[in-house]
Specification:
Structural class: alpha/beta
CATH superfamily of the largest domain: Type I PLP-dependent aspartate aminotransferase-like (Major domain)
CATH topology of the largest domain: Aspartate Aminotransferase, domain 2
Shape: globular
Strand order of the largest sheet: 4-11-10-9-8-5-6-7
Number of domains: 2
Radius of gyration: 22 Å
Distance between the termini: 55 Å
Helix content: 40-55%
Order of helices and strands: EEHEHHEHEHEEHEHEHEEHHHEEHEEEH
Number of strands: 16
Oligomer: single chain
Largest sheet: 8 strands, mixed
Length: 410
Amino acid sequence: MSQQTHSVTGPGACSGRQYRFASRMAKTPKSFIREILKVTEDPQIISFAGGLPNPGLIDVDGIARATASVLAQDGHSALQYATTEGYLPLRQFIADRYKKRLGLSISPDEILITNGSQQCLDLIGKVLINPGDHVAIERPGYLGAIQAFSLYEPQFHPIILHEDGPDMAQFAQELDKNPIRLFYGVPNSQNPSGITYSENRRREIGALLAGRDTLFIEDDAYGELSFDGTALPSMRQFLPEQAIITGSFSKILAPGMRLGWVVAPPPIMDQLIIAKQASDLHSNYLSQRIAYEYLLHEDIDERIAGIREAYKQQSGLMVSLIQEMMPESVTCTHPKGGMFVWMTLPEKVSSMEVFENAIRDHVAVLPGTPFYVDGGGNNTLRINFSNATPDKIRTGIERLACVIHALEKR
């Protein structure tokens, strides 16, 4: 059997040489966010386009203390190669926190430290998805997952997302019609919509999937960022042998440390470890040691409480300004946590037109189309509130409202 490839002529190559790439690359979308971030490097632009935590809430001094302590006390070891699974005390800390927050009994042996939670998605795709496998995902769904899983050439089945979670009737129909290998969801403060599944919807999903071959991939990057501190049940509570959880220190500690983790039943964990060994041997060991030292000596609960309160204020301000300044036909979600508001524009207003016109007015937003695997979302926007000051939120929403009013009146 011959391997299918696609060819690309390299720009700027004098010879016009064509390079042949694996066919999977033609089916994998670029990260629209990364492309937009290039545009927003202009300091004059107010950017609601990315998914960046508030830099002012990163505890630089605390991390500096932890770094100095690790290097002074055990620098030679911290700068050496390490085990694939990750630093055991850090994995134990994560396991203990699951017990404290969610009542879950998880062994450190069920936890693998990764280079951010994005690597979790790549590893899950490697060990679970064959070309043509059926994968269900929220509609709209997280574009980082869409990109990661697309490399492994699945058939996507988007499940409509309502205010309390996935559409259960549609989900049941898809399960009956297709051998769904896995369902990827973000139950807490979903990216991009900001929606949080209700506890009842989580129970319904658990009952629907129990006993099937379908796995639930629970992306919990925002679980600690519930504005009121409420911790809703993990899907592992309802599907102890069918749920895989991914987590991240990016939103509560520092994204630049690139530390995430995946929790999986032992047979799946064995395969994830093999895939990670083949990929990078182990995650940044120095970052792991620094993170653990920080968590050991600093009050992470107090730090998270401060982040929650700041984001609650920023989200509330953004939503109130949208309601005040936008046309009546514009609607938005009311997040209970996380970092994003999801806007639905008038039907005749294109989100790409809004993006292009808004950039000229020095405000950047993210069109909703990349979050749909089946097309759609042409009149939707994802807006990030966590990385903007109140003044910038007010100015940016005012500019954006002017753009949308003008487009609606055409």
